[in-house]
Design brief:
about 150 residues; alpha/beta; Glutaredoxin; five-stranded mixed beta sheet; globular; thioredoxin peroxidase activity
Length: about 150
Amino acid sequence: MTLAAGDAAPDVTAFNQDGDRVAPAFDEPTVVYFYPRDDTPGCTIEANQFEQEYESYREAGVTVYGVSTDDVDSHRAFADQEDLDFDLLADPDGEVADAFGVDTSSGAAARTTFVIDDGEIQRVYTGVDPDGHARTVLGDTLDAGLATLDD
């Protein structure tokens, strides 16, 4: 069952595209978006749009992680090809997806996004349309007062 707003964020650890072990604390505003596969049309749109909004996320103090069941090598190639500055977490065994309750029964993670702050799930997006999603999540995060942009 997918985690819901109000649930505690799980303790997870995964390797990023650089092969570094990452263990997010989730005590600061964080977006974790699950996507099916590297270098596929929808996933590329979503990653590129998170990258386009990345500076605004950073200015607002929000960390962004992309997660799929692809391995580190696939993430490295995808991040290099698309010039991504945020971490892509490799979840080839589906352990991170399982911790969040994200469906992987098709062999890939269902497109699902979580906004987390103070160790708690604040918002969940399921059935995500990748086009425009990064901007929607940023706007909702700002509107909810979880983060602010300095003007």
